[in-house]
Design brief:
Elements: H1 6-9, H2 12-26, H3 28-31, E1 35-37, H4 39-45, E2 51-57, E3 80-95, H5 100-103, H6 108-135, E4 138-139, E5 150-151, E6 157-159, H7 172-179, E7 189-194, H8 196-204, E8 209-211, E9 219-222, E10 225-229, E11 235-236, E12 239-246, E13 250-254, E14 263-268, E15 275-288, E16 291-293, H9 306-309, E17 315-317, E18 326-331
Parallel strand pairs: 1-13, 6-18, 7-10
Antiparallel strand pairs: 2-3, 3-15, 4-5, 7-12, 8-9, 9-10, 11-12, 12-18, 13-15, 14-15, 16-17
Helix pairs in contact: 2-6
Length: about 325
């Protein structure tokens, strides 16, 4: 389709919902159930405030009471706490040259939708890994007037990397110990996000099973949990971090606030014979349920950068540890 321009093929009213839906279709994190999207989260992500409240009710605790004629039952109130999510704002611009192959195809808008959706799918995984670095990061100790070093979600972290010899390496029993961080709630853990080197290590031992759904691409499982490979998973000095997730552990809201322009085309007339651009913007919630964003160290009122999402001082658990369906497992590879 020679001479086709971005303005010819991009219809913003159609393009943006296509990109959002295609991104979620492509995301293994969404398809596995780890990241959950619904209209309530979309509504929260559409608010003007950089922070939104995500209330939850605590589990009902205690024991039942014996029924005794004439005796009142104890009044047990359902209590609630406040979970707070940050609204994340991101944007990306591509020139027509970046999209030239797609423009030459038989259905250029759909081809560009897929390219853009794949970009946001990869970008969302990077965003999530930054958040994991934050909630499992350690705030260093200060002077004598400040508290000691603190790892925000230490209750859900298993680190065997400091052990001697092979005891520091990944093993099936160590993985079970990581699951046990959730106690009797460990059955909720359904997915594992790992570095490709960790996946290769397990494949060499024939420990990754391949599942081929009839209507989807094949994926691997380890001990019955879906494996998602991401080289953004931290690795330092031979120590790898693997994350275990449960269904709905992360909330995804695709926002559309008042005045928001998610998709538009532009043209730089002064650059040679002119350059066409496609601009795509995201306003979203990507929030680990039960870990409030404190906004302690955020420079811009519009919301946190990716570096600020990785800052542990910006996170504080508000759920009970077993209610937070996320575990970090630090290990070496043999």
């Amino acid at each position: 389709m020679p001479g086709t321009t971005l303005q010819d093929v991009i219809v913003p009213e159609l393009f943006n919902p296509y990109v959002i839906n295609r991104t979620m279709e492509l995301s293994a994190l969404v398809q596995s159930g780890i990241i959950v999207n619904n209209t309530e989260f979309d509504t929260l992500a559409s608010q003007a405030s950089p922070l939104v409240n995500m209330p939850f009710f605590e589990d009902l605790t205690g024991e039942s009471e014996q029924v005794i004629e004439g005796k009142d039952l104890e009044d047990n109130k359902i209590t609630s706490k406040k979970d707070v999510a940050a609204i994340i704002r991101r944007a990306k611009m591509w020139s027509a040259t970046d999209l030239s192959a797609a423009l030459a195809g038989s259905d250029p808008m759909q081809s560009i939708v897929t390219l853009v959706a794949r970009f946001w799918e990869r970008d969302m995984q990077k965003e999530l890994i930054s958040i994991m670095n934050g909630i499992f990061g350690t705030i260093p100790a200060g002077d004598s007037n400040n508290p000691p070093a603190e790892t925000r979600l230490s209750s859900n972290l298993l680190d065997i990397s400091g052990k001697s010899g092979s005891a520091a390496n990944w093993s099936g029993s160590a993985f079970i110990d990581a699951e046990q961080k959730l106690g009797d709630a460990k059955a909720q853990l359904t997915g594992v996000v790992m570095h490709s080197a960790t996946e290769a290590y397990l494949k060499k031992q024939n420990l990754i099973e391949t599942v081929q759904p009839s209507n989807d691409v094949a994926f691997g499982t380890y001990q019955g949990k879906r494996v998602i490979v991401d080289d953004g998973c931290p690795v330092s000095g031979g120590v790898y971090t693997t994350y275990l997730f449960g269904n709905g552990a992360v909330a995804l809201g695709n926002g559309n606030p008042v005045g928001f322009v998610p998709t538009e085309t532009d043209r730089a007339k002064r650059k040679g014979s002119g350059v066409d651009y496609l601009i795509n913007r995201k306003t979203m919630i990507l929030h680990p349920r039960g870990i409030a964003f404190t906004n302690t160290n955020v420079a811009k009122t519009e919301g946190p950068s990716r570096t600020e999402l990785a800052d542990p001082s910006n996170w504080k658990p508000v759920y009970e540890p077993k209610q937070i369906r996320i575990v970090a497992f630090k290990h070496k590879l043999g």
